[in-house]
Write a structure and sequence with these properties.
single chain, two-stranded antiparallel ribbon, globular
Length: 84
């Protein structure tokens, strides 16, 4: 399944897209709406990410990339070494 991300504004009961979509006329799509700033925008500066926020959102939310948790973003906890 191809994924396309585009910003939109809600006006008079309809979503007004910021740019046209590369779709054929009458093509059926599924829509998921995220309200507010994206995770990438909310976490700006917390990750050593130099790419566009849209790419980070895709990596975090993409079904192809798997489900990420906050632990994935923080990194694995340090192993505790106990004397034997």
């Amino acid at each position: 399944m191809k994924r396309i991300s585009v910003k939109a504004t809600y006006e008079n009961g309809m979503l007004k897209l910021a740019e046209p979509l590369p779709l054929a006329e009458q093509e059926t799509v599924s829509v998921m709406v995220f309200i507010g700033p994206s995770f990438a925008e909310r976490s700006a500066g917390l990750l050593k990410w130099t790419g566009p926020p849209e790419d980070l959102d895709y990596l975090i939310n993409s079904p192809e990339e798997g489900l990420w948790t906050s632990d994935d973003l923080r990194g694995a906890p340090e192993e505790t070494h106990r004397p034997t």
